[in-house]
Structures are given as structure tokens and as C-alpha cells.
Amino acid sequence: MPSINMIAPRRAEKKRLESTVRKLVIVLLAEAVLITATAGLMVSRIYGTRSLIQDLDVQLTKLQPTVNTIEKYDKDTQALKPKLETLNEAKLTTLKWCRILDNLSASLPEKTWLTRVATVPPQPLAAEMVVNLNGVSASQNLVGETMLRMHDTVVDFNRLDLHFTQKSLVGKTTAVEFEMEAGIKIVEEVQKS
Predict the structure, then answer these.
(1) Residue 38 neighbours by CB distance under 10 Å
(2) Per-residue pLDDT tens digits for 49-93
(3) Distance (Å, rounded) from C-alpha 58 to C-alpha 45?
(4) Angstrom distances, CA of residue 153 to CA of 7, 19, 122, 134
(5) Calpha distance 46→33 (Å, rounded)
(6) How far is CA 73 from CA 34, 61, 168, in A?
(7) Which positions ≥6 away from 109 have C-beta within 8 Å?
(8) Fewest C-beta atoms under 10 Å: which of 2, 8, 22, 167?
């Protein structure tokens, strides 16, 4: 029987197996280091996030009275809103009449005076309010000039009609009495903010 020497192949197989085990151990150690590093990173992020949440909770606790005050002011503002709207509408209406009377005053030529300004209550669903203007002037020409100036100056008038003119005596001076009717726009372009 022939003798076969099996020592060399067994040694080679043993070295190959030891090399494979070493490589496997190195890979396992590398994976363990990687897993440990990942776990450490995650744990540090969790602690960082918890710390941030605690800081934000402290800030929230400090700011809560301010938030409550702001909410109270918002509620108060909402409660006052209808009153504020009424006040703004009244202001616009008042300013409208101030503007109209100022423009009327500016549109009167010399030796022409208004003796009466009266409004007629508007009809329901009317588009304009009627204003009667009575006055005295030195001549017919000044009455015409007054109408032209009013037409150009008073922008709130929809229309301006002359009802009559008549000669009269004011003291010892002859004058011309006149009556005009103007239509004032009721609908005002309200500027809401």
C-alpha cells in the first residue's frame, strides 16, 4: 500500500481556516465598533433632544403669562371691534359733512351768502340725500357763479339744481334770494383696514 502524506494538505487547510476565522473576527469587531458608534450617536442625539425639549418647556413656562396676556388683548380687541367700526363710520360721516361745508364755504363768491342749509330725510332705499341751500347774493350773475363753483368744488354732490331766484330788499340794498337743491351721495366708500 502506498503511503500518502496528508500532513501538508491538513496544515494548509488549517492555515486557511485560521485565516478565515481571523477575517471573520475582524469583520465582527468592525461591525461591533460601528454598531456601538451608531448607538452612541443615537443616544447622544436623544439626550440632546431631551435637553432641548426641557429648555423649551422652561421657556414656554416663562412665556405663558405673556401668551395669556396676548390672548386676553385679542379677546378685548374682538369685543371692541363693533364699537370701533361704529366710531370709524361716525368719524367718516362727520368728516364728510365737514368737507362738504368747507367746500360750500370755499365755493361762495364775494357778496354771496348762504342763509339756510337744510337736509331732507332720505327715503328708504334712496341713493342720495337731498340738501336745500337758501342764500342771498348781490346779483343774478353771482348766483350763476356760485352754482358753477359748487358744481366744480363740492365733489359729494350728485346734482345741483336751482329752484328759484327772486329780487328782494336786504335793508336798503337790493339783492337776489335763491334756493338750490343738491343731491349728496349716501353710499360712502368706507376704507376698512
Answers:
(1) 10
(2) 999 999 999 999 999 999 999 999 999 999 999 988 888 888 887
(3) 20
(4) 125, 108, 23, 18
(5) 20
(6) 56, 19, 64
(7) 137, 142, 145, 146, 149
(8) 2
